[in-house]
Amino acid sequence: MKNKTPFIDRLISFLLFLGLTFGLIFIYFAQERHYNTLVYGNLLLGTERYLRILCVMLVFLVSVLAIFRSKSRYTLNVYAAYVVLLGYITLNYVLYGADIFDTTKLMDTKGIGPWICMGLIFVSQNDGIFKNIKIFLFITVFVIFALSVYNFIDYGVGAYRGEAIAKYLVYAVNMVWIAPYVFLILKNKVKFAKFRFLVLLPGVFLALITQTRSFLLIYFLVLLFDFFHTKKKTLYILFGSILAFGFMALLLSSEALSSSYKLLGKRGLEDSRTSQLVQFTDQINIIELVVGKGPDATWSFSGFAYQHLDNQWMLLLWWGGLIPFLMYFYLTAFIPVKMFLKTDDYETKVESFILILWTLACGGMAIFSTMSVEFYFFVICLIQGRLLHKYSLIK
Question: pLDDT tens-digit profile of 229-249?
Fold first, then answer.
């Protein structure tokens, strides 16, 4: 007789997938809101905000349940690093006088919300739940692609990059953190291996439309990783060349896609970050980097008071302080690199690789990615949790 799944695990699973489903549906509304914000200056959400609220509340609940349910499944250093990270940020938030009843600020990148949601790392130790997570992410890729195609038919790509960013950015950001993972883990699935490039192409399509160099670089690195973990490299090159040729033919034959390609070429190697970092570093001091300047901190960017930064590691260090920076770096960069170098298990390498890409992205390689209450961050946390669980097993 099979062992019955404990009630708490079934409850966590139900709440998790309900929350993720609400989050996936909300991606459509988030994209439309992004468009309305950039085009019309309208920041307001309609009744769809309840989807967002339900999603975040469910993720909060799952995170809290998982933290207490799974603490024995992770090493003390992993568990302690997360508790110290969350505790310090909460203390920082309260001591600097931030309004804990201001939900917008609470859920901001510099709020407590994203770090509570990070508790999702403790969900992925459950084999059954994580198996269903992978299936859910596979479905997610095609849902986002279908929404993108609808936009493409209805709107096109726009005459310049700003229009493309307005209409596709939310889809592109979510896709760049989901499609590569799904693409890579399908490698050893016999039934799907031959068709897994269909998972990656929508992401490349969106990166091209939005003319986002960093996303194209991520997809290129994913293909390099995949190539080096392929036995039949000659066949891979041949098949890849045919696929690339077909994609380029589609690109050049479509007036809309061709214009995106030309605009991307004009951007070339243009440096859009150094000036910002130089201005930022000129205004900070060592004490601020140790204790953190708090969630309401601002700095002067070209004469304007600015709260954020394209480098998420520097931003966390600046507003949160050294302790949160070190704890998150340990969980997100140090352990993944260590696991990547020492493991022979393919899926573990994939999980490590995705976290390494995330680390680089937060360092400025992909400016639209950050620790948040967005759907893609939930996915990163779930992948990270699986890796941290495997790390705990071998300790």
Answer: 887 777 777 766 766 666 566
Q: Which residues contact 352 (CB under 8 A, 6 or more apart)?
A: 336, 337, 339, 340, 343, 387
233 domain-assigned = yes
- What's the whole-number mean pLDDT along residues 356-373? 90
Q: What is the pLDDT of residue 1?
A: 42
Domain count for the chain, please give it.
Answer: 1
3-state helix, strand, coil in the chain (%, to 5): 75, 0, 25
Residue 1 within a domain: no
Closest CA to 240 of 221, 223, 254, 252: 223
Full domain range(s) for residue 175: 15-394
Residue 56 belongs to a domain: yes
Q: Which of 10-24, 92-106, 263-277 has the lowest mean pLDDT?
A: 263-277
| Cα dihedral value 138, 5, 61, 327, nearest 10 | -70
Identify the pLDDT of residue 339.
Answer: 96
Within-domain flag for 3: no
Q: Are 235 and 193 in contact (CB under 8 A)?
A: no
Three-state DSSP class for 299? Answer: strand
Place of tokens 């999702």: 120
Q: Across 87-96, 302-311, 322-331, which has the greatest mean pLDDT? A: 322-331
